[in-house]
Write a structure and sequence with these properties.
The complex is a heterodimer of chains A (171) and B (290). Chain A is of the alpha+beta class. Chain A has 2 domains: 4-79, Ubiquitin-like (UB roll) (Roll); 88-170, [2Fe-2S]-binding domain (DNA polymerase, domain 1, Orthogonal Bundle). Chain A has helices at residues 25-32, 88-95, 105-118, 124-130, 141-155, 159-170, and strands at residues 4-10, 13-19, 51-54, 57-60, 73-75. In chain A, strands 2-1-5-3-4 form a 5-stranded mixed beta sheet, sandwiched between helices. In chain A, helix 2 crosses helix 5 (141-155). The N and C termini of chain A lie far apart (58 Å). The longest helix of chain B is centred in the last third of the chain and has 26 residues, at 264-289. In chain B, helix 10 (227-233) runs antiparallel to helix 11 (240-253) and helix 11 (240-253) packs across helix 12. Chain B has 12 helices and 14 strands. Chain B has 3 domains: 7-52, 2-Layer Sandwich (Uridine Diphospho-n-acetylenolpyruvylglucosamine Reductase, domain 2); 65-172, 2-Layer Sandwich (Uridine Diphospho-n-acetylenolpyruvylglucosamine Reductase, domain 3), CATH 3.30.465.10; 178-285, 2-Layer Sandwich (Enolase-like, domain 1), CATH 3.30.390.50. Chain B is of the alpha+beta class and 290 residues long. The termini of chain B are far apart. Helix content of chain B is 37%, strand content 25%. In chain B, strand 13 (209-217) and strand 14 form a beta hairpin. In chain B, the strands form 4 sheets. A 5-stranded antiparallel beta sheet of chain B has the order 4-5-10-6-7. The chains are: A alpha+beta (171), B alpha+beta (290). The A-B interface holds A 1-2, 4, 20-22, 24, 43-45, 48, 51, 54, 57-60, 63-65, 67-68, 70, 111, 114-115, 129-130, 132-134 and B 1-8, 10, 30, 33-34, 37-38, 40-41, 50, 52, 54, 101-105, 107-108, 189-190.
């Protein structure tokens, strides 16, 4: 079976690879580009650990082919921080203990980032619905929700949102 | 899990895609991939070549015209869910779209892909049956329209020929005093249905049911129209007793299997209940329009 030559922008950097058509996007990221921050959890599109952004929209990379990303832009957890400065979501997960074992965290953060792009000031219910496709086996959802609330306050510093987030954090 | 080997093409336009389907054996159409890739990974399918229709322009639109809604074969669950016309006039579609999979899957999964895949527990097929939608399929030789009620042949089998692509779905305009609703029983949010009931109806000037479509999913080898329940409801006064008789008729017409979601008798009882709930909601929405 012939390989396909693909060009993918990964975290802003143009990358190329020759891949078998059956190569999954998550394997391209992890095994070819050595970006192992994206995790493989269930491998059946249930758990969301492999969540990345494809052309800005969140997707489960275990259920996409690498060739489907040809000509597109991919953002992974490695693309979130600016140098040594963590992305507000990463910092919030740190501050709020939004992770226990940490396996679901890259997917949670990528899905949360997409959610906050759609809805800068989500309610708790909207946050929970927004991460419905991401499972935390440690069941640490309370702190995950708090983390996303903290980041929402920082990313969209409207006065109401900031006050509300601060109140939530203190509570 | 690694899929079997296959060749992959991403044609730039529909004619090119149709020529590939005409000329190559064992070709399979790839849209969002959230139905097909799991099959490939489980090696339940082993196509020779995947024809990715993701780059073909003009297949993902949603247009409202006087006669109804024209939905491109590659329109995503999310684009349907967020569509202003759907929100205003097609509550059945809005209900169903909201409950499909999860946000990531709704971002990329498509109505056309779901319908062509024909999982016996999928939500859209019941919706299209209840709304009496028409499905357009195209081959290199031309196109044809298939009534949603004739489309689902068996589990994972449809009326689409191997050389055809599903290009468009047309949902008729609901008309005056219309109401629709989708009632889904699921074990966890975003699961495939244990029982799914789609209802689309109209109330006449006398307040009685003047038109009704009911589609059921997950309770037979294919989604199907609950025709006995429809016959009971036509011309009837929309009250609880009538809803219950319709629910019981739909349960009698269903043939669920016992599985991890529950015993067959339980599912039949739930068909009756979910039909009642969908009817209540559809009638209440129709009355709000009046």
């Amino acid at each position: 079976m012939t390989t396909k030559h693909i060009s993918v922008t990964v975290n802003g950097e143009a990358r190329e690879a020759d891949v078998e058509p059956r190569l999954l996007l998550v394997h391209l990221l992890r095994d070819v580009f050595m970006l192992t921050g994206t995790h493989i959890g269930c491998d059946t599109s249930n758990c969301g650990a492999c969540t990345i952004h494809l052309d800005g929209e969140s997707a489960k990379s275990c259920t996409l082919l690498a060739v489907q990303a040809d000509g597109k832009s991919v953002t992974t957890i490695e693309g979130m921080a600016s140098g040594a400065t963590l992305h507000p979501l990463q910092q919030a997960f740190w501050d709020q203990h939004g992770l226990q074992c940490g396996f679901c965290t890259p997917g949670m953060i990528m899905q949360a980032a997409w959610l906050l792009k759609q809805n800068a000031d989500p309610t708790e219910t909207e946050i929970r619905a927004g991460i419905a496709g991401n499972l935390c086996r440690c069941t640490g959802y309370v702190n995950i929700v708090k983390s996303i609330q903290q980041a929402a306050g920082e990313l969209a510093p409207s006065e109401d949102a900031a006050t509300e987030a601060a109140a939530t954090i203190q509570a | 899990m690694i899929p079997p080997q296959f060749d992959y093409v991403r044609p730039a336009n529909l004619d090119e895609a149709l020529a590939i389907l005409r000329d190559r054996e064992g070709a399979k159409v790839l849209a969002g991939g959230y139905s097909l890739l799991p099959l490939l990974k489980l090696r339940l399918a082993s196509p020779e070549v995947l024809v990715d229709i993701g780059a073909i322009a003009g297949m993902d639109g949603i247009a409202e015209v006087e006669k109804g809604l024209h939905i491109g074969g590659r329109a995503t669950h999310r684009s349907i869910h967020e569509n202003a016309a759907v929100k205003a006039r097609y509550p059945l579609l809005e209900d169903a779209a909201a409950g499909i999979g999860d946000p990531q899957i709704r971002n990329w999964g498509t109505m056309g892909g779901s319908v062509a895949h024909a999982d016996p527990s999928a939500d859209w097929p019941a919706v299209l049956i209840a709304s009496r939608a028409a499905i357009n399929v195209r081959s290199a030789g031309g196109d044809r329209w298939i009534d949603a009620r004739d489309f689902f042949i068996d589990s994972f089998q449809t009326a689409i020929e191997p050389n055809e692509i599903l290009t468009e779905i047309r949902v008729p305009a609901p008309g005056a005093n219309a109401g629709g609703a989708y009632a889904k029983l699921e074990r966890r949010a975003g699961d495939f249905s244990t029982v799914g009931v789609a209802v689309q109806l109209n109330l006449g000037a006398d307040g009685q049911i003047s038109a009704v479509g009911i589609g059921l999913t997950a309770v037979a080898p294919t989604p199907f129209a609950a025709t006995d329940a429809e016959a009971i409801l036509m011309g009837a006064t929309p009250d609880e007793a009538t809803f219950r008789r319709a629910g019981d008729a739909a349960a009698a017409q269903s043939s669920p299997t016992t599985d991890a979601h529950g015993p067959a008798e339980y599912k039949k009882a739930m068909v009756s209940e979910m039909v009642v709930r969908a009817l209540r909601s559809a009638v209440s929405r129709a009355r709000k329009q009046a």
